[in-house]
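Need a sequence for this fold. Nothing fancy.
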């Protein structure tokens, strides 16, 4: 199975997935890392892991439709079977959704349906919940609304800072996401 990872920034989840592929824990190949930011650190990570990487930005296109058409073409060129979003900070448009039905997964740093959107960790922290967590889900046309595949809870200690909570959440992400992807790959390769 051929995976593409889409990421906009740091790429620590991409790194965790790449390591899991390398270790043989995920029976798939990452054939493409795409970033919508030409200076994203995730591009360095792809290079260090010898994974083909491409980047272009929305602002280089006339509109979002043209941007997505270019992305779709890139995915088709690389014969991608499954799209893994890992900190990809854009909404997936109709074209991509139709081309990859139930073949786009995302990770969100909260227990959906609670705290969707851009600031899942901070929103949970500020709401003073005693428990938050991580969700892996399929993408649909809403924001963080698609069918949930897996969740893991993370306790919030009353003493802890936002930074400490972020660290804890990311550690859970780096374990959970590769595990869930391995499972999806296994199921869909049957
Ligand atoms: C993660 O917290 C993920 O849940 C969210 O964006 C963040 C990406 O972090 N969607 P990284 O780029 O993988 O380090």
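Here you go.
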């Amino acid at each position: 199975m051929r995976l593409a990872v889409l990421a906009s920034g740091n790429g620590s989840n991409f790194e965790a997935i790449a390591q899991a592929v390398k270790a043989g824990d995920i029976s798939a190949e990452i054939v493409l890392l795409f970033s919508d930011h030409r200076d994203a650190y995730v591009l360095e990570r792809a290079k260090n892991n010898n994974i083909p990487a491409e980047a272009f930005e929305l602002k280089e296109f006339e509109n979002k439709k043209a941007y997505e058409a270019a992305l779709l073409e890139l995915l088709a060129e690389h014969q991608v079977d499954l799209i893994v979003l890992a900190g990809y900070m854009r909404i997936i448009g109709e074209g991509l959704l139709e081309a990859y039905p139930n073949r786009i997964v995302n990770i969100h740093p909260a227990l959906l349906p609670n705290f969707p959107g851009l600031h899942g960790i901070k929103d949970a922290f500020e709401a003073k919940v005693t428990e938050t967590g991580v969700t892996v889900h399929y993408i649909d046309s809403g924001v963080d609304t698609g069918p949930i595949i897996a969740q893991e809870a993370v306790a919030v200690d009353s003493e802890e800072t936002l930074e400490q909570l972020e660290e804890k959440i990311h550690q859970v992400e780096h374990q959970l996401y590769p595990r869930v992807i391995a499972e999806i790959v296994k199921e869909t390769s049957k």
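For context: The pocket of 5-O-phosphono-beta-D-ribofuranosylamine is lined by residues 7, 9-14, 86-87, 107-109, 173 (CB under 6 Å).
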